[in-house]
Amino acid sequence: MMATRHSLTGATAHEQAIALAILPLDPVVMTNIHESSMNGTCLTMHPLDTLDRLPVSGFTPRPTSPAAILPSARVLLAEDYRQLAKLMECTLTQAGYEVTVVHDGRAAIDKLRTEPINLAILDIDLPELSGFDVCCFLRGQPQLQHLPVIICSGRGGADDHARARELRTSAFISKPFVFAEFLQSIREVLALT
């Protein structure tokens, strides 16, 4: 098995912290965070069976329970911040989900109309139409009104939570979030469907 590299080139310290919180970590990998003048900050994931051939310094095991991985579900991820969307997509894909990523509310609605989706994860502050607008659309469509929706946003005021409850969302995840809690919320929501 070869190492997998996730580049965080050009990411700010805050963005790197978010990336580390949600990085997809498979049960059989370890991560190494290093600086490189050519590649910027990168996360390199190595199979555990190659541990004895890797330098020990800088590596930390971060396992995820194999029992936590559910059978594949189709997830629509609507996130306008592209670097975060890519990391979230990798996290979900490594956990066994099929992921469709869009970067604005109108594209989210287009995908929801044309693709079979089991769960929608929506940021609130999307271009074109907000995550709340997308949720309103879903609740008005007979064939989509019961689709589970998770709001995942940096906004987390009482008004935002109240609006999410009003729209019958399944969960509200505040950014930045912890990788394990992000996946646990998704598993819990899908288990109820």
Q: What's the name of the CATH homologous superfamily of the largest domain?
A: Response regulator
The helix count comes to 6
Rg, Å, rounded: 18 Å
* Averaged pLDDT: 75
Describe the protein in words.
The protein has two domains: 4-63, no CATH class; 71-191, Response regulator (Rossmann fold, 3-Layer(aba) Sandwich). Helix content is 33%, strand content 24%. It is built from six helices and nine strands, in the order βαββββαβαβαβαβα. A hairpin with a 3-residue loop joins β2 (29-36) and β3. The chain is globular, with a radius of gyration of 18 Å. The two termini are 35 Å apart. Residues 1-7 and 22-70 have low confidence and may be disordered.
Structure summarized in a few sentences:
33% of the residues lie in helices and 24% in strands. With 193 residues, the protein is an alpha/beta fold. It has helices at 13-22, 82-94, 105-114, 131-139, 158-166, 179-191, and strands at residues 4-7, 29-36, 40-47, 59-61, 74-78, 98-102, 119-122, 149-153, 171-174.
Topology:
Elements: E1 4-7, H1 13-22, E2 29-36, E3 40-47, E4 59-61, E5 74-78, H2 82-94, E6 98-102, H3 105-114, E7 119-122, H4 131-139, E8 149-153, H5 158-166, E9 171-174, H6 179-191
Parallel strand pairs: 5-6, 5-7, 7-8, 8-9
Antiparallel strand pairs: 1-3, 2-3, 2-4
Helix pairs in contact: 1-2, 3-4
Keywords:
alpha/beta; 4-stranded antiparallel sheet; 5-stranded parallel sheet; Rossmann fold
